[in-house]
Protein: Ketose-bisphosphate aldolase
Organism: Sporofaciens musculi
Amino acid sequence: MYEKVGNILKTAKESNTAAIAFICMDYVMARTVVYAAEATNTPAIVMLFPEHVTIQHTTGFEKYAAMVKELAGEVKAPIGLHCDHDYSYEAIMRTISAGFGSVMMDGSMNDLDTNIAVTKKVVEAAHKTGVFVEGEIGHVGTAADSDNDKTDLYTKPEAAEKFCKESGVDSLAISIGNAHGEYRDTPHLDIRRLEDIHAATSVPLVLHGGSGIPDDQLLVAFSKGINKFNLGTEFLGKYFQSVSDFAAENANNPDPVKIINMPEYVQSKLQPYVEGRMRTLCKF
Ligand SMILES: [Zn+2]
């Protein structure tokens, strides 16, 4: 069933665990997450990366929101819909008008006061229609640039406290040794810093750059205030591998419309992986 992200994160916080938000670029990925959630009886979040609309054209904003709500209606498990990294008030308003009840205003490339100002403006507008807003403080950079080792990008607990208080944000993405994409070396989350941020704030905390962080570190982080965990790179990699496998297995299949069997094949390969992530990491 379709559920507000705010409610899913509230439950995660009460359970001292995290809901996984999977980047899904199309129907196959979204359907996989929804049915894995149902199979494992686990709340989950289907998440759009805006560039999949604006650059890769794998979907559209309104179509995506409607698609996820329809899929959510097919199952009993709580399914949230969220839009990842938007960078301006205008982009957020477009996302909200397309039907998203949960958005991310990423102002983390700005100085603290500018980030607070732009996020506060978004929060005030979003809350008028009950839309949930995730902000970011510190900066989650790029794993390929080893940004996860650059401690000057890490979130400062006192800045997080000020940011939450003044912006009114509903959840907070933080930088504690995590980064987007594929890590060059095994990342090491700064758990002490997480504890300090958790003590200084009251909103659910969010961990971006989830692909490649060892499970033992993730489980510790989830017990210390991380209530939403974004997974994209690894899931997209598994998708590519499944498509490659389908192509290899059907290379000599003479059926001219063999492509129509690809979505179900891919889902059958991806779903065990998604279920595994949920069973291992989500303790609702
Ligand atoms: Zn991110």
